[in-house]
Specification:
By secondary structure, the protein is α+β, with helices and mostly antiparallel strands. The protein has helices at residues 9-34, 50-56, 85-96, 109-134, 150-162, 198-204, and strands at residues 38-41, 45-49, 63-73, 77-84, 138-140, 144-149, 167-177, 185-193.
Length: 211
C-alpha cells in the first residue's frame, strides 16, 4: 500500500480500539432503545482496497441492506453500514417484534425506520469514538436506507476514493442479545474518507501518509 506506507499494526490496533469503544457506546444506546441487554464486538478492522471491499460482502452483485451517512466536518467522507438481507431482516424482526418483516415483501414503515435508527446509532457511536481519538470535528448526516447490489451502493464513495488511494477502513461488527450469542447479527462498516481526509485522520493518529 504505497499511499498508506506509514501504517503499521499499532495503528490498526488503534483503529480497532476506536471500533471497540464505538461498539460499546452503540450497545449501550441499543440496550436502552430496545429495553434489553445488547452486546457488540468488533472482531476485525482492516484497511482494504476497492476490490476487497466488494469481496467482503460476496461480490459487487450481492444484494445487501445498507444505511448510508455522509460525514461532514474536519474529515469529510462517506460511511456505510452493510448487512446481508437475511441478517438485516432478522435484526428488524427482533427489534420490532414483527416476525413477518421482509425487504422482498410488504415493508413496514416501522421496520424501515428501525433499520435506519440502527445505522444512525452505530454510525454516531463510531464517529464519536473516532472524533474523541483524533480531536477532529465529525458530523453525520441523516441516515438513508438502500437495498441494492453492493457495487451500486458503494460506487460513489469508491469512485471518489480511487482517485488517490483506493482504500477504505472496514470495521466488522457483531451484535446480539446478552443471552443469545448464537443469534449474532454480523455486519460491516465501511468508512470511505474523501481523498483529502485520509491525511488528517491518520496524522491525528500519528501516521504520516506518503504519496
Amino acid at each position: 500500500m504505497p499511499y498508506l506506507s506509514g501504517l503499521n499494526d499499532d495503528h490498526i490496533d488503534i483503529l480497532k480500539e476506536i471500533g471497540n469503544i464505538g461498539a460499546g457506546n452503540a450497545a449501550t444506546a441499543l440496550s436502552q432503545l430496545l429495553n434489553k441487554k445488547i452486546e457488540m464486538t468488533v472482531p476485525n478492522v482492516q484497511i482494504v482496497s476497492f476490490d476487497e471491499v466488494m469481496e467482503l460482502v460476496g461480490g459487487a452483485e450481492h444484494v445487501v441492506a445498507s444505511v448510508f451517512l455522509r460525514i461532514e466536518g474536519d474529515a469529510p467522507g462517506n460511511m456505510f453500514f452493510v448487512l446481508s438481507l437475511p441478517q438485516a431482516e432478522r435484526f428488524i424482526q427482533q427489534m420490532t417484534g414483527d416476525a413477518q418483516f421482509s425487504f422482498t415483501g410488504q415493508q413496514s414503515e416501522l421496520g424501515v425506520s428501525a433499520f435506519q435508527e440502527l445505522g444512525n446509532i452505530l454510525a454516531g457511536s463510531y464517529l464519536s469514538a473516532l472524533a474523541d481519538f483524533t480531536h477532529l470535528k465529525l458530523y453525520p448526516s441523516v441516515p438513508a436506507l438502500t437495498v441494492d447490489m453492493i457495487g451500486a451502493i458503494l460506487q460513489y464513495g469508491l469512485i471518489e476514493l480511487s482517485r488517490v488511494g483506493d482504500y477504505a477502513i472496514v470495521i466488522d461488527t457483531a451484535l446480539h442479545e446478552e443471552q443469545q450469542p448464537q443469534d449474532s447479527v454480523n455486519g460491516h462498516f465501511f468508512l470511505l474518507p474523501d481523498p483529502d481526509s485520509f491525511a488528517p485522520i491518520f496524522r491525528a493518529l500519528g501516521v504520516e501518509l506518503h504519496e
